[in-house]
Amino acid sequence: MSTSAIVVAIIAFALGALLALLTIPVLVWLERRIAGLVQDRIGPNRTNIFGFRLGGVVQSFADVVKLLLKEEYYPSHIKSGKWLFMLAPVITFVAALLAFMAIPFADTMIIDGESLRVSALPIDFGVFWYLAISAIGVLGVIFGGWLSHNKYSILGAARAGSMVISYELPLGLSILAFIITYDTIDFNAMVQYQSGTFFGFLPAWGILVQPLAAIILIVSLFAETNRNPFTVAEGESEIVAGFMTEYTAMKFAMYFMGEYVAMNTASAVIITMIFGGYQIPWVSTEMLLENFSVFAISIMIAMPIVVAVLIRWMRKNNRVRPTLSTDGGRDFETKVLTIAMLGMTFLVEAILIYLAFLTDNALANNIAITLFQIVVFVVKLMIFNMFFILIRWTVPRFRYDQVQKLGWYYLLPLALLNIFVTALVVVGVSS
Amino acid sequence: MSQNIKVTQRHGDNFKDKLYLPAIYDGVKVTFKHLFNNVNDINAVDTLRYPEEQPTDITSRYRGLHRLTHRPDDTIACVACFMCATACPSNCIFIEATPREDGHDEKMPKSFFIDTLECVYCGYCVEACPCDAIRMDTGIFSLTGNKREDFVLDKEKLLSHKGAFGEEISCARD
Question: What is the Cα–Cα distance from A61 to A75, expressed in whole angstroms?
């Protein structure tokens, strides 16, 4: 194993852990802010560190500190299986976290003839890994609900069990259709397939190649992450907090964070399988590497525009109403952030000018393109996470028998039909 | 009879409704419109930024924090008749009377305490007062303190509150 392989592996692992864990506070804050803005409220925007409020994202860190410092309370009526009661949230959390690790953040780097995967787990059976690990997550929910010895909890656990039998089959079958289409179980190869074109002009994204399977996949993944419109395992109006009723402090936080990690993982799987992953449409990694100067120039043109729009938006919105005399340090924050963004833009421009015109280092070009792909991946991930959140604040919930009906009467036959048609087309094309 | 029957059309039977997805698309369109408009201009959100922004819709009938009024010659209007303390349903007014020296009436309060932690802001004391000596027209809607004693208002404190709606002195006949 060469030095570069070790460096790439460590960086990819750190990136995977960061993307999975650091997005939790951001997602919790995004959820609350988007909920507010959808309902014409404001949402948390007050918490700050030395006047830096960053739109209020600091709030989540304050919440984590609060949950960490809360008393660890164990219900005294739980006599048997206390260890499993404590382990259950960990199962849910870890399963969601591990499932994320097989996602590629950028295309395989080729350094000195060695191909190095840019994903936390460098495996080529990512789809199976994801299906196997993410299915364990619901076990934590069922264990927790069962061992709480509480009627609400056990109802929540039973509903979680009913969910599993509703969505797992359509999920697996829709993924099977993708496996047949892409002819691979490797996430990275799937993304590479999607960087091609379809009918000559459309990007070969899964949503265009396999629209039916894509919709079934999205619906099933919404069900798997236990989010609206499929929040049946918990329901404040009927079963309190469901399986989480007896959980407090950090044990509760594990379930809570596990939900957001699962959402993040589902978003990552969706964008990797049907929205082209880390690629921008029509452009494959080879094209980027061959035409590096074109790539560099387009980034040099695009980045100042994006930053200018961002700064303009920040100057407009990081203000108090004109009737107020005090601005709570917002002007200062805007100034500092503007300088930081401009500085970053100049730095990136300088690096790109150096790479494009002054040197001809293939390794540096490769690293620049990998970084660009990671940025594209994160942007797509966040957009799809916001879609998840927007859906939650848009649609009402299904009853759990309705979810079963949806899964067995509609999604399962459609998925089977889709596999049949896909197989016919694939066989017909290849023969 | 038959013309009085209103037939309500059932929804959800046609293919479009059974698909769910067009309805979800319509819903997302609505929520996204709100989200986009509010992200585009956060100050358009109609939320009061308390405490930097104070409410402007407090009317003259609002029952705020109490005050004791003055007579035109700046003496206290209260004659320590105990009517407010008697009318008070939560027994939060404590008055101690003393003979009056300033030539208006026989009595005046030596001490006048209102325990605002007990007070329910019903306004019965204002209704009961024959001298228009106690009023709730300060417009003060929040009272803060660090200990319980801070919320027991004494005579000087109550006299120092100003009326917020123009009527400063007691309107009672001298």
Answer: 27
**Alpha-carbon A93 to chain mean position:** 14
Taking an 8 Å cut-off on Cβ atoms, the answer to whether B28 and A390 are in contact is yes
SS3 B85: helix
> B91 in the Ramachandran plot: left (φ > 0), alpha (ψ -120 to 50) or beta?
left
- How would residue B1 be classed by pLDDT, with cut points 50, 70 and 90? low
Q: How confident is the model at residue B57 (pLDDT cuts 50, 70, 90)?
A: confident
Contact (CB<8Å) B24/A323: no
Residues contacting B162, CB < 8 A, separation 6+: B67, B138, B168
Where chain A has pLDDT below 50, the residues are none
Q: What is the pLDDT of residue B120?
A: 93
| Number of CB atoms found within 10 A of residue A368's CB | 22
Domain boundaries, chain A: 3-282+361-430
Q: What is the model's pLDDT at position A340?
A: 92
Ordered by where they begin, the domains of chain B are 11-47 (no CATH), 67-160 (3.30.70.3270)
Give CA–CA dist B84/A166, Å, rounded. Answer: 67
> Residue A345: how many CB atoms within 10 A of its CB?
17
Radius of gyration of chain B (CA): 28
Would the CB atoms of A395 and B24 count as touching at under 8 Å? yes
Strand partners, B99: B107
A286 class by beta-carbon count within 10 Å (0-12 exposed, 13-18 middle, 19+ buried): exposed
pLDDT of residue A352: 85
Residue B121 burial class via C-beta count within 10 angstroms: exposed 0-12, middle 13-18, buried 19 and up:
middle
- ipTM of this complex: 0.83
Give the C-alpha separation, A134 to A102, whole Å. Answer: 11
With cut-offs at 50, 70 and 90, classify the pLDDT of residue B119: very high
Q: List, for residues A188-211, the tens digit of each pLDDT value.
A: 888 888 887 777 777 878 888 888
| Residues in chain A closer than 8 A to B43 (CB atoms) | 317, 319-321
* Mutation choice for B interface testing from A222, A310, A387, A395 by most B CBs within 10 A: A395
Query: What is the reported pTM?
Result: 0.83
Least CA distance to A310: which residue of chain B? B40
The whole-number pLDDT of residue B2 equals 67
CB contact under 8 A, B45 and A391: no
Q: Which residues of B touch A212 (CB under 8 A)?
A: none
Q: Which residue of A has its CA nearest to B19?
A: A410
CB contact under 8 A, B47 and A42: yes
Q: Partners of B110 in the beta sheet?
A: none
Q: A382 to chain B, minimum CA–CA distance in Å? A: 16
B-interface mutation test, from A218, A228, A317, A330, most B Cβ less than 10 A away: A317
pLDDT greater than 90 at residue B100: no
